[in-house]
């Protein structure tokens, strides 16, 4: 799972959960997969992201030196930050780990890089 | 307005119902100006006017239906008139055409006839009938610099070939369509496929319908083996998928290839994208139940391309609270795989349209298939949503009495759940009976009847053979031998 996807996922499918975001991420195994830097795409995806969760992901991935805690303005003009965001969001692949619902503590496992967001019959 | 240029579009006669809508989608996607001069869209040759040559080339750079595009020099229904027009065209446009006729330009003339066969000699005669063309270059059949096309169209019905050709066309080849991609992305050589993987041609057509552009975010909520993501990524989309089937998403389900016993370790949707050089376009796949969305309300997609399960070859499932829960013999620490319940097609499409209305950007497109029993198809039965415009709808025949339709919706209003535009939001008319139930129960004859009828026919044949003194071949052992030979 890439950290961009982490920013899209919620646990609001669980009965009674209102926001379910951001999920608490734990990484036990990760890998860095280099990919082509596309500044336009990073810029296009930014409005879809929640910065606090971007920063949260940076904390878990130990990249807080690269990512400011508050979203700076005019990121589009800051090529260096775009590159760092690209690395954080698209190049770090969480192979094993878990996502935890902030309201109920329900844990969603990540296996072989794929998060399993399925709920049990009694949770929906 | 004098700059418009005419082209012959030569289409493959396959998925004929899809070509008009593909043409219109591509014209809209590139913002081109074009006028279709051929009315009968089932014809394999259209004459189309584009604002300029570059527009025409843009269209050809994406079209899957298009075989080739030829700049039109002359078009007529009668031979003498055709030759007159060709002569006139070359004389009046000599300034712009001269370069193709110069001495250094090697050339080749292709004679293409549709619905009527001509021998090689007859074809050469047709070429020689145009000896007035001031061609100076040398013939080069393998790698010509200029390719001229002479086309005769003899109608569509092979049982009623007209006495005269309906269209005679001549022009210079300017571009090929993208049909080479069909072979390049063929399922035959794809790393990871499943029983319901979409073939390369249709998935490329779907991506064109969705107007996937460079840098778009594309989502497939019923991703399966990711066959739709492959074509979307090929056109430059960044792809994200979800599916309820854990084994499928992890590529641990039963293999579909007859020669394959177990899935290989490195099979995955990501491996498929890597195979076609689109690894950078892979965002993620997630195991998730579509009936209960997990996506953040803020996320918006440029395109949603999907082929939902119809309940025939792939089950329609969701996780649901069960009224009666069986006694649980498993301990807390054991892995629990939630059991799934039936997800009716009607509520599935309702959810899909609602999800798309919420999560598409304005102007973004949803492209999906919907199965039908041909005899009771009625446009009124198509799902509708206040925020989505149905912009295209084409049919593909599946079996004798079933077909599926490729629907393209475009989001036309911003979504606000609090203020529905007019009354209810989603309308999915209830079909009289469930597609699956009807498919298996209301066939012209049931499976049992069919089996009995076939067995009776075989028995009859056996008795007749015996009467004629022939020894019947053992069909079963023959089949076994064939299978053995295949695995040696």
TrEMBL record, chain A:
Any single GO CC term annotated in Swiss-Prot or TrEMBL for this entry: nucleoplasm
Alphabetical list of Gene3D superfamilies matching this protein: 2.20.25.10
One GO term of the biological process aspect: rRNA (guanine-N7)-methylation
Keywords of this entry: Cytoplasm, Nucleus
One annotated GO molecular function: protein heterodimerization activity
Signal peptide: none
Main location: cytoplasm
Record Pfam families: Trm112p
Subcellular location: Cytoplasm, Perinuclear region; Nucleus, Nucleoplasm
Entry-linked PANTHER family: MULTIFUNCTIONAL METHYLTRANSFERASE SUBUNIT TRM112-LIKE PROTEIN, UPF0315 PROTEIN-RELATED
Family per similarity comment: Belongs to the TRM112 family.
Name of the molecule in the record: Multifunctional methyltransferase subunit TRM112-like protein
Organism of provenance: Drosophila mauritiana (Fruit fly)
Lineage, opening ranks: Eukaryota, Metazoa, Ecdysozoa, Arthropoda, Hexapoda
Automatic annotation (TrEMBL), chain B:
Substrates-to-products reaction catalysed: guanosine(10) in tRNA + S-adenosyl-L-methionine = N(2)-methylguanosine(10) in tRNA + S-adenosyl-L-homocysteine + H(+)
Ribosomal RNA large subunit methyltransferase K/L-like methyltransferase domain sequence ranges: 189-318
Cellular component terms (Gene Ontology): cytoplasm; tRNA methyltransferase complex
Keywords: Cytoplasm, Methyltransferase, RNA-binding, S-adenosyl-L-methionine, Transferase, tRNA processing, tRNA-binding
InterPro entries: DNA_methylase_N6_adenine_CS (IPR002052), RlmKL-like_Mtase (IPR000241), SAM-dependent_MTases_sf (IPR029063), TRMT11 (IPR016691), TRMT11_N (IPR059073)
Signal peptide range: none
Keyword Transferase: yes
Gene3D superfamilies attached to this UniProt entry: Vaccinia Virus protein VP39 (3.40.50.150)
GO biological process, one term: methylation
Entry's localization field: Cytoplasm
Main location: cytoplasm
Gene Ontology terms for molecular function: tRNA (guanine(10)-N2)-methyltransferase activity; tRNA binding
EC number: 2.1.1.214
Sequence ranges assigned to domain tRNA (guanine(10)-N(2))-methyltransferase TRMT11 N-terminal in this UniProt record: 6-179
Top-level lineage group: Eukaryota
UniProt record similarity statement: Belongs to the class I-like SAM-binding methyltransferase superfamily. TRM11 methyltransferase family.
Function: Catalytic subunit of the TRMT11-TRM112 methyltransferase complex, that specifically mediates the S-adenosyl-L-methionine-dependent N(2)-methylation of guanosine nucleotide at position 10 (m2G10) in tRNAs. This is one of the major tRNA (guanine-N(2))-methyltransferases.
Subunit organization: Part of the heterodimeric TRMT11-TRM112 methyltransferase complex; this complex forms an active tRNA methyltransferase, where TRMT112 acts as an activator of the catalytic subunit TRMT11.
Protein name: tRNA (guanine(10)-N(2))-methyltransferase TRMT11
Species name: Drosophila mauritiana (Fruit fly)
Record lineage: Eukaryota, Metazoa, Ecdysozoa, Arthropoda, Hexapoda
Gene name per UniProt: LOC117143044
């Amino acid at each position: 799972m890439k950290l961009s996807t982490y920013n899209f996922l919620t646990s609001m499918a669980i009965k009674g959960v209102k926001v379910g975001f951001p999920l608490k991420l734990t990484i036990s195994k990760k890998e860095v997969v280099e990919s082509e830097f596309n500044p336009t795409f990073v810029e296009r995806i930014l409005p879809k992201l929640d910065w606090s969760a971007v920063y949260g992901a940076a904390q878990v991935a130990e990249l807080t030196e690269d990512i400011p805690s508050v979203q700076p303005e005019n990121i589009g003009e800051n090529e260096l930050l775009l590159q760092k965001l690209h690395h954080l969001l698209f190049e770090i692949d969480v192979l094993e780990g878990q996502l935890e619902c902030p309201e109920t503590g329900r844990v969603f496992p990540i296996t072989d890089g794929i998060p399993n967001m399925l709920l049990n019959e009694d949770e929906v | 307005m004098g700059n418009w240029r005419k082209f012959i579009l030569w289409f493959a006669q396959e998925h004929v119902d899809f070509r008009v809508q593909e043409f219109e989608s591509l014209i809209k996607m590139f913002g081109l100006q074009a006028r279709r001069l051929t009315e009968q869209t089932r014809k394999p040759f259209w004459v189309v006017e584009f604002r300029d040559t570059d527009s025409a080339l843009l269209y050809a750079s994406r079209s899957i239906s298009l075989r080739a595009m030829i700049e039109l020099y002359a078009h007529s229904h009668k031979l003498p008139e055709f030759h007159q027009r060709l002569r006139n065209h070359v004389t009046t446009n000599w300034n712009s055409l001269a370069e193709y006729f110069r001495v250094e330009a090697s050339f080749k003339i292709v004679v293409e006839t549709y619905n009527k066969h001509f021998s090689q000699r007859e074809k050469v005669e047709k070429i020689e009938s145009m000896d007035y063309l001031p061609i100076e270059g040398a013939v080069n059949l393998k790698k010509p610099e200029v390719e001229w096309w002479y086309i005769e169209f003899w109608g569509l019905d092979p049982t009623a070939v007209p006495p005269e050709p309906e269209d005679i066309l001549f022009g210079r080849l300017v571009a090929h369509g993208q049909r080479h991609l069909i072979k390049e992305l063929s399922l035959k050589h794809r790393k990871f496929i499943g029983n319901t993987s979409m073939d390369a041609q249709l998935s490329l057509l779907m991506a064109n319908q969705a107007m996937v552009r460079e840098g778009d975010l594309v989502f497939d909520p019923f991703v399966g083996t990711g066959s739709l993501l492959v074509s979307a990524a090929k056109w430059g989309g960044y792809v994200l998928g979800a599916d309820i089937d854990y084994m499928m998403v992890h590529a641990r389900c039963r293999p579909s290839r007859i020669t394959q016993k177990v899935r290989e370790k490195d099979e995955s949707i990501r491996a498929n994208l890597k195979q076609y050089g689109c690894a950078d376009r892979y965002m993620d796949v997630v195991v998730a139940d579509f009936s209960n969305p997990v996506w953040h309300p803020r996320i918006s997609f440029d395109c949603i391309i999907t082929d939902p399960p119809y309940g025939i070859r792939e089950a329609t499932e969701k996780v649901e609270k069960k009224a009666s829960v069986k006694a649980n013999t498993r301990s807390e620490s054991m892995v629990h795989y939630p059991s799934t319940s039936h997800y009716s097609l009607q509520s599935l499409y309702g959810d899909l349209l609602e999800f798309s209305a919420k999560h598409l950007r304005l102007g973004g497109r949803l492209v999906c298939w919907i199965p039908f029993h041909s005899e009771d198809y009625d446009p009124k039965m198509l799902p509708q949503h206040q925020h989505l415009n149905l912009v295209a709808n084409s049919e593909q025949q599946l079996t004798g009495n079933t077909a599926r339709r490729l629907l393209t919706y475009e989001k036309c209003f911003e979504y606000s759940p609090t203020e529905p535009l007019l009354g209810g939001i989603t309308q999915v008319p209830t079909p009289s009976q469930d597609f699956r139930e009807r498919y298996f129960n209301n066939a012209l004859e049931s499976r049992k009847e069919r089996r009995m009828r076939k067995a009776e026919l075989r028995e009859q044949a056996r008795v007749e053979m015996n009467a004629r003194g022939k020894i019947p071949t053992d069909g079963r052992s023959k089949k076994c031998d064939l299978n053995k030979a295949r695995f040696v």
